[in-house]
Every structure is written in structure tokens, then in C-alpha cells.
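Form 7-S
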Amino acid sequence: MMVALPRAKKRIRPLVKDDVTTVMQWSHDPELQQLTGRRFASEMDGTLWWHAVERDRTRLAMAILDDNGRLIGDVELENVAWRAGEAELRIAIGEKSCWNRGYGTEALSEMAQIAFDQLHLHSLYLRVSERNLRAIRSYYKAGFRKVARLSATGRLQGGEPLVLMRRTSADVEDTP
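Output:
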């Protein structure tokens, strides 16, 4: 799914096919694999992922940029449930030198603005390892709140327990 950005976003832009090689490289980092559960085993996996992002009406992928416009991560809405007005959010800062600098928090806030203002969704949720305190702090700063503790399933199955966090369109007014 593609969206037109109504005004220039500071931290995100639409992900493009040329970004896939970099995203694939990040997926081979063991620490990032553990945090995100994502790994592209082959170039074909990356190609298939890109085609799914490009065509799927229930997904929106954006690139995260540093202050110089360099690709440092990606943020994605997945499993958009149009009737329910909600979507799952996934984010990864692939460039470790950019961790703990606020880029993820800004990207989350900009993506939430798109989700609520342009896509007219009412709720975003995400799952995060309860031991990933850095990410949880970022999610709180971006307006997300803990709502439940979960067992890891899917690509994270067998891993650490997860925290389910949610942000609603009503929370937008309360977030910088």
C-alpha cells in the first residue's frame, strides 16, 4: 500500500525497492534477529518480502532516515484491519550507531500520524520482548501503553515473553 505524504516528514519516507538490500543486510545481524525475529535467508526472501509490501493492502512500509537523510531503519504497519480500524506496528533501527538517539521515537510518532490522519485507523499495537527496555522506553515516549503480557509465537516463538502495547487515535493529543 502506498500513501502520499501531505507534508514533508522529518524522519520517514516511503520505502523503495533500492532499500531492500540494506534491510536484508541488517537482518543478518544476530542481535537484530533476536530483537525483531526477522531474517532474510536469501535474496529471494528479500524480493518476496518487497513484493508483499508493494502489493498488500494491509501493509505500509516506510524508511527511517537520520538527520542526513541516510537510511537507518524501517517501520511498517502490518495486518491492517480496515473494518476494525487497527494495525500492528513493527520497527527496526538497523544501524546500531543510531540507537538511543531518538530516531525510532520520532519515526513511530510520524507513522502514527499517518495511520490516524490519512488511513483513519483508530488503534495501533505492537509486541516487544519484555527485556527490550530501550524499545519499551521509546514506545512510551511515542504514546504507546502496556496492555498485556504474551507468550512469544510466530517468528519469535520460543523466545522471551512479550509485552503488548497499544496507542489509539485518542492518545495523539497527549503525545509530543
